[in-house]
Design a protein that fits this description.
Layout: H1 11-19, H2 25-29, E1 35-39, E2 49-56, E3 61-64, E4 70-77, E5 82-88, E6 102-110, E7 113-120, E8 129-133, H3 142-152, H4 163-169, H5 174-182, H6 190-215, H7 226-235, H8 242-256, E9 262-267, H9 273-286, E10 290-294, H10 298-311, E11 317-320, H11 326-338, E12 343-346, E13 360-365, H12 373-376, E14 387-392, H13 398-405, E15 409-413, E16 424-428, H14 433-445, E17 449-453, H15 461-479, E18 485-488, H16 494-505, E19 511-514, E20 527-532, H17 540-547, E21 558-562, H18 567-575, H19 579-590, E22 594-595, E23 598-599, H20 615-631, H21 637-645
Parallel strand pairs: 5-7, 9-14, 9-15, 10-12, 10-13, 11-12, 13-14, 16-21, 17-19, 17-20, 18-19, 20-21
Antiparallel strand pairs: 1-8, 2-4, 2-6, 3-4, 4-5, 6-7, 22-23
Helix pairs in contact: 5-6, 6-20, 6-21, 7-9, 8-9
Bound molecules: adenosine-5'-diphosphate (ADP) and magnesium ion (MG).
Residues 238, 240-241, 244, 267, 269-275, 393, 417, 521, 523, 525, 548, 552 line the site of adenosine-5'-diphosphate (ADP).
Length: 650
């Protein structure tokens, strides 16, 4: 039903509703209150909240203040007392108030007077009134919206929870739940809320599972000689940690099975995900398919390229980034399509429309939260459905994994390679820069290297550049005599960046000043200290990622944040090195907006359910939705149709 078809709604109101995102009848009745005010007569106690009935003893007087504000005063007779009442910005009510008018006054009693926050013309008496409070906009208040909703509710309500599930959970029918949530007679709303939450989650999971089924889960069935994999692992300069080994075998099992792999490899920065991905690429190669490893930055792609060539010198590995010359790109495109390239490492360029793979069997995305869902899905291929492995250092709570991918398998690397020490983390004020320089000097004396992250300036590239250059000059002044200071920033060309980076790697540069272009993945084990100016400008997870650039061997490493602001937030990093806790804290501070770098789009916005708090309900809904799709679809065509209509995820 359209808003225009609802009796009593004029165009002006409809416009207001549209502003709240209410576009039809269903939106309107599922526009739930976010809280309730419970109003009940109180005693009048100094300094306390007061709710009291009375009769006006005087005509109100209104004085007008600055900025269109006003103040109204009157005397209220409550039968046994006479109170002075003031209320701000309700001057427009003056005409409705005369001597003898009965009202309820809600406010606070202080210094022999009531400062009211609201006036009601319906007396409270001995009743307990529950007022639903909605998110509203100027031009409409909660009680007006509530009236509109109550008037609109009719029998035309579709319950998306099938009868047998309503029975299973003892849920009430949807109509009575909708009525009750907008007009409760008491605050026992748990059952009602659960039903409405469940309905949302059930529909959501139905949609996820529907999409998953539709995409088809059959993957490549492969034959791989496990001994060759073991031989390769034995050539590595270290033994795999137990978690790395477990992850390798989980991936191996996925790859040889006919099920399509959809796996997340999760592990804190420095936990050693890269080598696991190389082994996966090798297994894929052994079974005769091409592999692709996609990295979020040029530098990281290049680093992987160099490393994998070292690990697997007999394979034909190519590097494909946006910075290549057209002729170079064309050559790689051709070889990818013909199949002479075994493994390609690259950036977004890997998923450009021009790239056609001969037989891509495995796609790995590193630090994958930086790629959008649609990008990950746009790999063009000849005939085969590649297996997919995502790697992430940002621990993704299972909740999001489940909701975004219906069902993604997860391998976790929980412990870092042996001998790693905790990275000692300090938070320093701008005025403590001398301490910082002293600590830097200690590291330089030990022949270690240091990253300095320059203040992040959002206003303009030009200012940013000036800033890092200034910082470099200062560092030159302090350390120029004892070591070499290098500079890395976004304005450098790819080859210039590579040049600086490789000089740092080769220890020709000892202090590297950088904007955050080094943010992800770079591996320089001799770097034992990172100093971050204006740390408050970064999210906690981003800082934790940065911190992961140091502490990459058994040397004691240090992470120093400099900031005069937001000490409380930054303290989280001083207190814990646990990436999971940090991302939880970040999540709480920032809200649930950003998952996998994909903004929560329409399909993930819930009206009443909450992925975090209603996780158990979500799991139930997930199970039920699978069973529904397998066994009950035909009895409930109307539900399935709705799910098909919701098919707009990518
Ligand atoms: P991340 O998980 O952040 O991608 P990397 O894969 O870059 O971590 O690994 C960090 C460092 O640890 C690298 O220098 C890598 O060679 C080294 N490394 C990985 N696995 C092991 C291991 N089992 N034992 C010792 N060092 C390892
Ligand atoms: Mg990595």
């Amino acid at each position: 039903m359209q808003l225009e078809d609802i009796k009593g709604l004029g165009p002006k109101t409809i416009n207001l509703l549209r502003r709240l995102g209410i576009n039809d009848y269903n939106d309107l009745i599922t526009y739930y209150p976010y809280r309730y005010d419970v109003i009940k007569k109180t005693d009048v106690v100094n300094g306390e909240k007061v709710v009291i009935d009375g009769v006006l003893e005087s005509l109100p007087t209104v004085t007008y203040l600055r900025n269109h504000k006003d103040k109204m005063s009157f005397k209220l007779n409550t039968g046994d007392h006479l109170f002075n009442v003031v209320i701000f910005n309700r001057g427009f009510l003056k005409s409705k108030l005369s001597v003898g008018t009965s009202i309820t006054v809600i406010g606070k009693y202080e210094k022999n007077m009531i400062v009211a926050s609201d006036i009601k013309f319906k007396l409270i008496g001995d009743e307990t009134r529950i007022e639903p409070i909605y998110h509203v906009t100027t031009g409409i208040n909660s009680s007006q919206l509530n009236n509109i909703i109550i008037n609109a509710i009719n029998d035309d309500i579709i319950d998306y929870v099938p009868d047998y599930l309503n029975k299973k959970y003892d849920f009430k029918d949807k109509l009575s739940c909708i009525k009750k949530i907008h007009k409760p007679s008491n605050m026992n709303l748990e059952d009602v809320k659960n039903k409405l939450k469940y309905e949302e989650l059930f529909l959501f999971m139905l949609k996820m599972n529907y999409l998953k089924n539709k995409r088809g889960e059959r993957g490549l069935e492969r034959k791989v000689d496990i001994n060759k994999v073991k031989d390769f692992i034995n050539t590595l300069p270290f033994t795999l940690t137990p978690d790395q080994e477990k992850s390798v075998y989980e991936i191996y099992d996925d790859l040889i099975s006919d099920k399509r792999m959809n796996r997340l490899l999760q592990g804190d920065v420095g936990s050693g995900k890269t080598i696991v991905s190389f082994i996966a690429l090798y297994i894929n190669y052994l079974s005769g398919y091409q592999g692709a490893l996609m990295a979020p930055t040029e530098i990281l792609a290049y680093q992987h390229y160099v490393n994998i060539k070292k690990s697997l010198p007999d394979l034909n590995v190519a590097l494909l980034t946006g910075k290549l010359k057209v002729s170079e790109k064309k050559k790689i495109y051709k070889e990818l399509e013909e199949g002479s390239i075994d493994i390609v490492i690259g950036t977004h360029a890997l998923i450009s429309d021009d790239v056609v793979y001969h037989n891509l069997g495995l796609v790995i995305t590193d630090e994958q939260h930086r790629f959008g869902v649609s990008q990950r899905n746009s790999l063009r291929n000849k005939g085969v459905m590649p297996d997919v492995l995502y790697m992430s250092a940002t621990p993704i709570p299972r909740t999001y994994a489940i909701t975004l991918f219906g069902d993604m398998d997860i391998s976790s690397i929980k412990t870092k390679p042996n001998g790693r020490k905790e990275i000692i983390t300090y938070l320093k004020k701008d005025s403590e820069i001398k301490d910082v320089l002293t600590m830097m000097y200690e590291q330089i004396k030990l022949k270690h290297q240091i990253y300095v992250i320059a203040p992040l300036i959002e206003e303009s590239d030009k200012i940013e550049l000036e800033n890092v250059i200034k910082l470099k000059d200062k560092m030159e002044l302090a350390f120029g005599k004892v070591c070499k200071v290098g500079l890395m920033h976004g304005k450098l060309s790819a080859s210039e960046k590579d040049e600086v980076m490789s000089r740092f790697k080769n220890n020709e540069i000892q202090i590297l000043i950088s904007t955050t272009v080094i943010e992800v993945g770079v591996d320089v084990p001799n770097a034992t200290m990172m100093v971050v100016f204006d740390s408050y400008r970064f999210g906690l997870s981003a800082l934790h990622q940065l911190r992961g650039r140091v502490g990459r061997n058994d040397l004691q490493s240090y992470f120093i944040m400099i900031s005069d602001q937001e000490a409380k937030r930054l303290k989280v990093l001083v207190d814990t090195g646990d990436g999971f806790k940090i991302s939880e804290a970040d999540f709480k501070l920032r809200g649930s907006g950003d998952i996998f770098g994909v903004r929560q789009s329409g399909d993930m916005q819930f009206r009443i359910a909450d992925l975090k708090n209603d996780f158990d309900l979500l799991l139930q809904a997930k199970e039920d939705s699978l069973d529904f799709l397998n066994n009950h679809v035909n009895e409930y065509k109307y539900i399935y149709k709705t799910v098909e209509k919701l098919d707009n995820l990518d």
